């Protein structure tokens, strides 16, 4: 039997791409519900037509309880407020949840942690395989290069993105900081303007570019004396994220309650971090 997938934000950029990716999975998965914001002009539209894969009879709705009764796993790339509401709904219904939304505050992340006591949740700032490999490469580079180099994270996204730095940039910064035995909360520098003074040793700087239709570029720069290394990932299609999220959904359906990420799905989590 096909795994029944629900998609939230089904009319959005990632929602439509998820519908396309799902259409390519054959019989292993099926779209069972598509959710949009209450009051959205897209309510009642056919999710397949919106996603450009032809009508599939799944109409966009806003009744979360009705949708959750029809699905095995909910895949949520929407907004912070919507995702937090979906976390509570999935917890009440005992349904697994894949979260791609970024931009949560520490308090909001704690709410997600708490829900994962009762349901399986896979949350990742980036579901592409390439970026998840870069997380490991960045950690290894930071370990080898140590405090000899300055670490800077540079990211670029489309003009519609509402959070900064990107979730992926923060994860890359966290990987570098953790590998250096530091804490990103102490070391991150998000703004530089005017008479900043010389670079603070050990700081991890973030630079954000927003424009056009850039899908998502990330570079971690390790700048030393006489040489520098750059680890770069460039996404050219949202299908890279959508396929990863569906892979996570299939994996998550067989997991007990807990909070997972794409490193778990891909088997990339370093042994020292495994439970
Ligand atoms: N982890 C990853 O790999 C990736 C994460 N992302 C993240 O995913 C999120 C969405 O990105 P993107 O698709 O570009 O954004 P979009 O704005 O294109 O899509 C979000 C969709 O969610 C809808 N929405 C808002 N509220 C609700 C609600 N209560 N119920 C259901 N749907 C709702 C929005 O509707 P409306 O416009 O009417 O408000 C919109 O259609 C962002 O946080 C982004 O950072 C993106 C790509 C990859
Ligand atoms: O909003 C986006 O588009 C993306 N958001 C994610 C993030 O914040 O890192 C992932 C990807 O880069 C695209």
Bound molecules: NADPH dihydro-nicotinamide-adenine-dinucleotide phosphate, the ligand O=C(O)C1=N[C@H](C(=O)O)C[C@H](O)C1
Distance between the termini: 32 Å
CATH level-1 class of the largest domain: Alpha Beta
Radius of gyration of CA atoms, rounded to a whole number: 19 Å
Task: Assign a percent range to the helix content.
Answer: 25-40%
Supply the CATH superfamily name of the largest domain: NAD(P)-binding Rossmann-like Domain
CATH topology of the largest domain: Rossmann fold
Per CATH, the architecture of the largest domain is: 3-Layer(aba) Sandwich
How many extended strands?
Answer: 12
Determine the structural class based on helices, strands and strand pairing: alpha/beta
Question: How would a textbook summarize the main sheet?
Answer: 7 strands, parallel
Strand line-up of the largest beta sheet: 3-2-1-4-5-6-12
The unreliable regions are none
What does this structure look like?
Helix 4 links the parallel strand 4 and strand 5. The protein has 2 domains: 150 residues, Rossmann fold, CATH 3.40.50.720; 107 residues, Dihydrodipicolinate Reductase, domain 2 (2-Layer Sandwich), CATH 3.30.360. It is of the alpha/beta class. The strands form 2 sheets. Strands 3-2-1-4-5-6-12 form a 7-stranded parallel sheet, with helices on both faces. Helices cover 36% and strands 23% of the residues. The structure holds NADPH dihydro-nicotinamide-adenine-dinucleotide phosphate and ligand LZUJQKHR. NADPH dihydro-nicotinamide-adenine-dinucleotide phosphate binds next to helix 1. The ligand O=C(O)C1=N[C@H](C(=O)O)C[C@H](O)C1 binds next to helix 7. It is found in: Cytoplasm. Keywords: Amino-acid biosynthesis, Cytoplasm, Diaminopimelate biosynthesis, Lysine biosynthesis, NAD, NADP, Oxidoreductase.
């Amino acid at each position: 039997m096909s795994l029944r997938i629900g998609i939230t934000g089904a009319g959005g950029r990632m929602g439509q791409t998820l519908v396309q990716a799902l259409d390519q999975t054959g019989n292993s998965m099926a779209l069972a519900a598509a959710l949009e914001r209450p009051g959205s002009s897209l309510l009642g539209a056919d999710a397949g037509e919106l996603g450009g894969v032809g009508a599939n009879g799944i109409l966009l709705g806003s009744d979360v309880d009705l949708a959750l009764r029809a699905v095995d796993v909910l895949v949520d790339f929407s907004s912070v407020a919507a995702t937090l509401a979906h976390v509570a709904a999935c917890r009440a219904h005992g349904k697994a949840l894949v979260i791609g939304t970024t931009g949560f505050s520490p308090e909001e992340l704690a709410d997600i942690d708490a829900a994962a006591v009762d349901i399986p949740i896979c949350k990742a700032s980036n579901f592409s395989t390439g970026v998840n490999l870069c997380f490991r490469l960045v950690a290894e580079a930071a370990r080898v290069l140590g405090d000899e180099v300055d670490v800077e994270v540079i990211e670029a996204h489309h003009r519609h993105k509402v959070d900064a730095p990107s979730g992926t940039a923060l994860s890359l910064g966290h990987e570098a900081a953790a590998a250096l035995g530091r804490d990103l909360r102490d070391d991150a520098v998000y703004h530089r303007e005017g008479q900043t003074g010389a670079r603070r040793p050990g700081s991890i700087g973030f630079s954000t570019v927003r424009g056009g239709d850039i899908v998502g570029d990330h570079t971690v720069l390790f700048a030393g004396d006489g040489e520098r290394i750059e680890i770069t990932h460039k996404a050219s299609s949202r299908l890279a994220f959508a396929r990863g999220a569906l892979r996570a959904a299939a994996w998550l359906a067989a997991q007990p309650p807990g909070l997972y990420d794409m490193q778990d799905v891909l088997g990339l989590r370093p042994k020292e971090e495994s439970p």
